[in-house]
Amino acid sequence: MKLPLIASLMTASLLATAIFAGSAPGAPVPVLLELFTSEGCSSCPPADRLLEALDRQPVADADLIVLSEHVDYWNYLGWRDPYSSQAFSARQQKYAERLGTSVYTPQLVIDGHLQATGSDQHEVTDAIGRAVHDAKLPISVRAIRSGSGASVHVDGNSFGKSVDLYLAIAADHMSSHVLRGENGGRTLTHVAVAQSIVKVGKWEGSGLAGRDVPLTAKQIPAPEQAGGTRVIAILQDPQTGRILGVAQARI
């Protein structure tokens, strides 16, 4: 854990439907912000609030796509984070190995190749400012409810690169009244809470291609609890972890 630096940012409107993420001149550059956080960490609530502020799109030339990934390694402190998963801890560990950093919370990984203390506004905005200079591969995602599940369609072009396609499912908003541990007695709120991040497969070849991915009812958070569901499509370099393309839609 690291000591927090409180932050506040100006607000703006959230983008609401499917987003086409490419590198068209003048278009906002999509930037993926992965916050590794925990309800068992006393330093994390300021980072959770900063991520909520970033979700309101305060950076004019960036389309910030945020994701809260709750790790499980602080659960032993007395509170089991209900959103935590060993899979998110493993994803953070992989980033730490690639970036040459320690594993800590709150850590914000930006586009898979930059990192900052998640509660430090200066570090975070500096990293975002660097990330917006990197063009992204074009990718779009659509999500439509189908019975009790949903149908997701991803279009993209890797321009001959061999990349991994991941699909992240996230609850729009979640909250908990923490009973024990470092945040005992506090009610904590979170945005874009990851439920799962699944590798769909390889994306290879040149030219525009599409892929359909079905979602079952179990994969989609209940709307009355989550306030909606976000589907985030990620093209990631399998060697470096760098995010080469990212887009999101809501169900």
Key traits:
single chain; 251 residues; alpha+beta; Immunoglobulin-like; 4-stranded antiparallel sheet; 4-stranded mixed sheet; 16% helix; disordered N terminus
- Portion in beta strands: 35-45%
Q: Ends: how far apart?
A: 34 Å
The count of helical stretches stands at 4
**CATH-level-2 architecture:** Sandwich
Uncertain segments are 2-21
Label the overall shape.
globular
Q: Which fold name fills CATH's third level, the topology?
A: Immunoglobulin-like
Coarse structural class: alpha+beta
Mean pLDDT: 89
Gyration radius, to the nearest Å? 17 Å
> Main beta sheet, described?
4 strands, antiparallel
Helix content class: 10-25%
- The overall strand count is 12
Strand/helix succession: EEHEHEEHEEEEEHEE
Quick one: CATH superfamily? Immunoglobulins
Supply the number of structural domains.
Answer: 1
Strand order of the largest sheet: 1-6-7-10
Q: Oligomeric state of the chains?
A: single chain
**CATH class, anyone?**
Mainly Beta
